[in-house]
Amino acid sequence: MMRSSLATAAGTSLWRSRRRLAPAAFSAALVGIAACDTSTSPDVKPTEVEVEVTGSSTVPLRLIVSNDFFETIDQLEGTRDQVFLDADTLFIESLPYDEVFPLTDIASVVVDLSNPAETPASVRLVVRVNNGEAPYDREATMSEGGSLRYVFNYRSPSFQAAGQRSLR
Hints:
The N terminus and C terminus are likely disordered. Strand 2 and strand 3 form a beta hairpin. Strands 4-1-6-7 form a four-stranded antiparallel beta sheet, with no helix packed on it. Strands 3-2-5-8 form a four-stranded antiparallel beta sheet, with no helix packed on it. The protein has two helices and eight strands, in the order αββββββββα. It is an alpha+beta fold and 168 residues long.
């Protein structure tokens, strides 16, 4: 008999403390939702990237944009590289250049700007992902074979959390 009354008393106090915490938790959740702007959160899967090239060049520059690629990692050298399975390749004849490219469901992209000519080009490459991620913004004077490359791989918050749990 004593055992059931303790269980009932413990269950009642637990229920009362949960009931007191529920409004506070609900209010905190509302504040969190109100603070998030889903159109500018890095946790939101992006749908497009804007590629902007400015500067000066008297020669055409090669721009490669790919959503269909895989990465290789050289663990000895500590480098990674992207292998394109499919890519849009175009030559930019005049600057400035600005275009928006859609992303696939995977929301990953490689943007590679290079100079295939002997004549140097002074350029600035800006890549903006439409989820609030800080833009990639680099300037360079590119000689023949010089390039600027940006790689973006979207990682969902649930994927990141699962990866952190597995590392523990």
